Amino acid sequence: MHSLSPSELSILLLEPSETQRKIIMSHLQQEGVVSIQTATTLADAKAIIARHKPDLITSALHFSDGEATDLLAYIKQKPEYQDIQFMLVSSECRREQLEIFRQSGVVAILPKPFNADHLARALNSTIDLISNDELDLSHFDVHNLRVLVVDDSRLARNVIKRTIGNLGIRIITEAEDGQQAINLMQHNMYDLVITDYNMPSVDGLALTQYIRNESQQSHIPILMVSSEANDTHLSNVSSAGVNALCDKPFEPNLVKRILYQLLEE
After folding, report:
1. Which of 21, 49, 190, 202 could form a disulfide with 15 if both were Cys (CB 3.0 to 4.6 A apart)?
2. Interhelix angle for 252-264 vs 154-166, to 10°?
3. pLDDT of 93-121, one tens digit each?
4. Which 8-state DSSP code applies to residue 81?
5. Which phi and psi angles does 57 have, rounded to 5°?
6. How far apart are CA 80 and CA 84, in angstroms?
7. Which residues pair with 39 in a beta bridge?
């Protein structure tokens, strides 16, 4: 399928500061974006979305009438807005403040100030999420791949399903935590497991250890998705037998490359 270019994207830029709006607009225009609407409050943004649904919302964190999280929750709750992508542009760097955005499946979190490279990657991720670009595998028919997606956040599962669905994967089973995944694996066979790291009761590490040491499917490829930048955690999961690690928010292009490597090896 023909992949979109930035010039075909429609963007809503939500930023209360006039100076910041001008800076971000100028960056977007340099990347080739031509359709940009702007808003300074959440109320304005909702009115614009109702009139003309954008492909991507680029948003600051704080507004006079609320927070970016309010708008994110608003678009995630309405089925007709589910496919609007969301990018946060913020000088906030405290991990706990940003975690809610990582978990809810934003396409990117850009720092202020950001560079052209950051923005280009985020726009490409948006394009990947709204274009279908099937994996072409030599050993498998991608439509027959059985994938188990394990995450305690429904939003995060939806993002993963959407990303891999765009790659042509159709047979997707969901589990809300590691324990549910183990129960499913005792009765079903899968070709790939995509699991979150942080989950209540049985986390991604414990699930990986179960798959590698106790299950009938010990050789199945495991892709771990994590918002943990903690090196100890990451070395633990690598030694437990995870095949690949991916950050939240994850980039579709990266997921595509990882899946290609996992399934073609």
Report:
1. 21
2. 70
3. 787 888 888 877 788 888 888 888 888 88
4. G
5. -105, 125
6. 9
7. 14
